[in-house]
Amino acid sequence: MPARWDALLLDIDGVLHVGDEAVPGAVDAIEQIKRGGVPFRLATNTTSRPRSAIADRLQRMGFDLDADDILSPASMAVRLCKERGYDRVALVVPHALREDLSELEAVESRGSAVDAVILGDLGRGFTWDILNGAFRSLLRGADLIALQRNRYWRRPEGLVLDAGPFVAALEYATDQGATVVGKPSPAYFHAAIDDLEANPATVAMIGDDLEADIGGALDAGIAGIQVRTGKFRPDALDEAGIQPTMLIDSVADVPALCGIAGSAFT
Ligand SMILES: [Mg+2]
Question: How confident is the model at residue 266 (pLDDT cuts 50, 70, 90)?
Fold first, then answer.
């Protein structure tokens, strides 16, 4: 383990904020990371809103961050569809997310023959009709591209289902595996590390999701630093059998890990 980390991937939800509240010390931590010149990207699995809306929300909470700092599963899905030559897709994603997928031709009628069904977190918008339309397109030969397959996430009122359980339902119904483009997919992490132009040995992912953030980072050959905020549950460490590189209280501890002078622990 290096004495300090030279480049960072930071999860957003559960790390920088929970609901509409910034995690205590997070705004200051980002300021220090920027001032310290540490390259970073916000590596989110959020598929319920576009990057522009994520950035707006962070700014309202006091973060000096913008859409260009954010890597999202939607951009990875566009990249994958182009690589595979997919022209027509069905989108099972929140309406607002469509701006991040606008380079793809979306077919609106449910159950159509398409090259791929792209599925994100529709939240309360998941209905039998929508899932059944996706199921029928898959039976007609479409590939299932899951923006992410997180099991659950934390809203202010408690834990809620994420996109993963709905991906699993379609996989079960069709006996066909999904291609996951968000975390913990190695392709996502490799693209993020390339973006940072950093030596992977000195890159750390800071996350609250043991499987998507920490497991994904470790599989991609970078450090996975688990925070005790957001969806973190001590029990999950034993259940998942994933050993984070390091466990810290919150993102407020990160500047010190990057050797940034003036941070709380230096
Ligand atoms: Mg998170």
Answer: very low
Burial class (CB in 10 A: 0-12, 13-18, 19+), 111: middle
Evaluate if residue 1 carries a pLDDT over 70: no
Delimit the domains of the chain by residue range: 7-45+183-257, 74-180
**What residues flank ion ligand 1 with Cβ within 5 A?**
11, 13-14, 208-209
Span from the CA of 173 to the centroid of ligand 1 (angstroms) = 28
Interval between CA 231 and ligand 1 midpoint (Å): 7
Token pair belonging to 147: 């923006």
Does the pLDDT value for residue 15 go beyond 70? yes
Read off the amino acid at residue 56.
D
**Section 12-37 average pLDDT:** 96
Q: Which CATH class is domain 7-45+183-257?
A: alpha beta
The whole-model pTM stands at 0.82
Is CATH 3.50.50.60 the right assignment for the domain spanning 74-180?
no
Give distance in angstroms: CA of 84 to centre of ligand 1. Answer: 29
